[in-house]
UniProtKB/TrEMBL annotation:
One of its GO terms (molecular function) is indole-3-glycerol-phosphate synthase activity. Keywords: Amino-acid biosynthesis, Aromatic amino acid biosynthesis, Decarboxylase, Lyase, Tryptophan biosynthesis. Pfam families: IGPS. This is indole-3-glycerol-phosphate synthase. Its EC number is 4.1.1.48.
Length: 241
């Protein structure tokens, strides 16, 4: 199936373009459960949820495909990509190129790569594999050393996770502190722990182009309105380095 896919030389460019605009772009996540919260909304129909997010102005959809702790499935990715026109992102703990092909075959436009989860040789290998299979990447970092590693492998969409994946503790100052150090040619994404526009403000002021929100909108009774409120926040005029 992978061999029959059309080539996608401009995948990274298109993904970055979708995440920049006059207001903060929302990457809306389909998240049934998580290790920190347990059940969030176990009954979510991934495609229907994604359609509501897009109705609210979501610029991209993040689909958790990890089954045991997040209640995700690769089938969700296929369902979402078939339903909505915005980029679908495979969100998982990806460690092998075959997982990127799995994502692309199911219609994903991008995949998450977590710098902290990958060795110095694995990260460039997976970046190259993503380019080869026509997938854009969202490269996740949590400190300055990881930012340097992301830049070294040519990441152009960089997410700063407020959540420490080892302790599961949210530090809302992480993204606002690191985002000003992300070069202006990259898209800067603030991730995790945001529910209201007030929660997004510090990252917006720091120069974020986009935010990644999961739990709050997955639990919401009105996901379209929940996304709409977050998608209306102006992007800061402040230029990054
Ligand atoms: O549900 P939240 O706090 O809005 O967070 C969403 C997203 O940032 C989070 O799901 C996430 C960020 N990086 C990850 C890596 C793996 C699994 C999950 C994640």
């Amino acid at each position: 199936m992978a061999r029959d896919l059309p080539s996608a030389p401009d995948a990274a460019e298109l993904f970055a373009k979708a995440l920049r605009g006059p207001t903060i772009r929302v990457i809306a996540e389909v998240k049934r459960a998580s290790p920190s919260k347990g059940a969030i909304n176990l009954g979510i129909d991934a495609a229907a949820q994604a359609a509501r997010y897009v109705e609210g102005g979501a610029a991209a959809i993040s689909v958790l495909t990890e089954p045991s702790r997040f209640g995700g499935a690769l089938g969700d990715l296929a369902d979402v990509a078939a339903r909505v026109a915005v980029p679908a992102i495979r969100k998982d703990f990806l460690v092998h190129p075959v997982q990127l092909w799995e994502a692309r075959v199911r219609g994903a436009a991008a995949a998450l790569l977590i710098v902290r989860a990958l060795s110095p040789s694995e990260l460039p290998l997976l970046m190259d594999a993503a380019r080869e299979c026509g997938l854009a990447t969202l490269v996740e970092i949590r400190d300055e050393a990881e930012l340097e590693r992301a830049l070294e492998v040519g990441a152009t969409v960089i997410g700063v996770n407020n959540r420490n994946l080892e302790t599961l503790i949210i530090d809302p100052t992480t993204a606002p502190t690191l985002i000003p150090r992300i070069p202006a040619h990259c898209v800067a994404v603030a991730e995790s722990g945001m529910q209201t526009p007030d929660d997004v403000a510090p990252s917006a002021l720091a120069g974020a182009d986009a935010i990644l929100v999961g739990s709050a909108i997955s639990a919401s009774a009105d996901p379209a309105s929940a996304v709409r409120a977050l998608a209306a926040i102006p992007r800061s005029a402040s230029t990054r380095r």
